[in-house]
Each structure stands twice: as structure tokens, then as C-alpha cells.
Design goal:
The chain is of the alpha+beta class. The chain has 4 helices and 5 strands. The model has no long low-confidence stretch (mean pLDDT 95).
Amino acid sequence: MPISFKIINPTNINSIIPLIQKLNGNKISEAVLKQRFAEMVTQNYECAALYDREKLIGVAGMWFCTRHYSGRSVELDHVFIDDGYRKKGLGKQFMKCIYDYVSQKGFQTVELNTYVQNNPSHKFYMNEGFEILGYHFLKKL
């Protein structure tokens, strides 16, 4: 299984939509996702990807910023590995590639949110050395 790590060119960002729809249970239409990703790639956002040969099998959005409490930070977003590739150590491999990439860019911390009901991800991130810092709140206007 020749797995490779790449940063997706912003012009190819829509290639991640099928995996994002799996992650979100198809709750957001393809048209809405296309519009949102077109905006995101203009806002300090990049997307890391894992490929099995030419097949996209994993994604992780990365928002780059500076925060008063953590310095130069990247916030991971929509981290997802396709079902058939889980439990093979690829998550750990993917995260290492991300850590190396963001470190080379001069960033000092990695942050993320995970859905409350996604207990397997909580265990994974704790094993990766993440600590629970707070709650993420959302209010739609």
C-alpha cells in the first residue's frame, strides 16, 4: 500500500468533497461545500491529504493563525480517514506528516475540535498528546 502525503492545491480543493460528505453524513450539499471551500482557500486555510496511489483516502483541513494563548498555531478541521483504511496506523502516520509540515512552516501548536459523540477520536487524540482545553460553542444566527 504506497501511501503518500500531499498538500492539496487550492485549485483541486473540490476533490475532498466526497470524503467531507462521508464525514458529515451528506448533511451539506455538494454545491454548498464547493462555495464554502472556494472561500476557505482564500482565508489562511490549507488541506493536507493522504493518498493510496492516486486514491484520496484521508483529509485534514488546516487553519493557520496566531493566538494569544498558544502562539503560532494551526487548527485542524475535518480530519477524516476513509473507513476501509482505519485501524492500520495511518492516522498516526498522517498526524506525524502534519506535525512535520506545520513545524517547518514555523508553527508551534496544533489544535482541533472533535464532535462530542466521537469517542474513538477522543482516545486517538489523547494518545497523540492532545489535552482537553475547553468546550467549543456554536450559535447559528
